[in-house]
């Protein structure tokens, strides 16, 4: 069974940093495009960043503006999101997801991802 477990969320002050991790199991992690998404009670789920199977290509939301870095360690079946210079607008539930199909495509839409974690809350205060 595919399982994605996020960790690393928490409450931080604006300007602070967090590193989110997503532990994957139940599938060949290295064969799937992965992504981070976020959602709030007032905003639909949106892409934060996605990454191809070996990290050759990445996609970031414009609002990230170089503050976040998505990466993966295929040997550890783990996806990461380094978040720096956090802003209150970054407050959201962050979800890890795996693409519906295997392969080297760089997917960028929530609908292209079929396996989701439970999420980890990130709260940034002023």
What is the subunit arrangement here? single chain
In one word, what is the shape?
globular
Largest sheet: 7 strands, mixed
Please give the count of helices: 0
> What is the average of the pLDDT values?
97
Element-level helix/strand string: EEEEEEEEEEE
The helical percent reads: under 10%
Estimated share of beta-strand residues: over 45%
| DSSP, total strands | 11
Could you name the ranges where pLDDT drops below 50 across 5 or more consecutive residues?
A: none
Tell me the span between the first and last alpha carbons. Answer: 40 Å
Computed CA radius of gyration, to the nearest angstrom: 13 Å
How would you classify the helix and strand content by structural class? mainly beta
Overall description:
The chain is an all-beta fold and 126 residues long. The protein has strands at 3-7, 10-13, 18-25, 34-40, 43-51, 58-60, 68-73, 78-83, 92-99, 113-116, 120-125. The strands form two sheets. Strands 2, 4, 5, 6, 9, 10 and 11 form a seven-stranded mixed sheet that branches. A four-stranded antiparallel sheet has the order 1-3-8-7, with no helix packed on it. Strand 5 (43-51) and strand 6 form a beta hairpin.
Key descriptive features of the protein:
126 residues; mainly beta; seven-stranded mixed beta sheet; four-stranded antiparallel beta sheet; 11 strands; 0% helix
């Amino acid at each position: 069974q595919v399982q994605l477990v996020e960790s690393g969320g928490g409450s931080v002050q604006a300007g602070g940093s967090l590193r989110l991790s997503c532990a994957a199991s139940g599938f060949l992690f290295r064969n799937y495009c992965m992504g981070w998404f976020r959602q709030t009670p007032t905003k639909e789920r949106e892409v934060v960043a996605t990454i191809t199977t070996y990290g050759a290509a990445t996609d970031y939301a414009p609002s990230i503006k170089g503050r976040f870095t998505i990466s993966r360690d295929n040997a550890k079946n783990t996806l990461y999101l380094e978040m720096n210079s956090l802003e209150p607008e970054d407050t959201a539930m962050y979800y890890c997801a795996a693409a519906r199909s295997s392969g080297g495509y760089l997917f960028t839409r929530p609908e292209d991802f079929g396996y989701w974690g439970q999420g980890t809350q990130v709260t940034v205060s002023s």
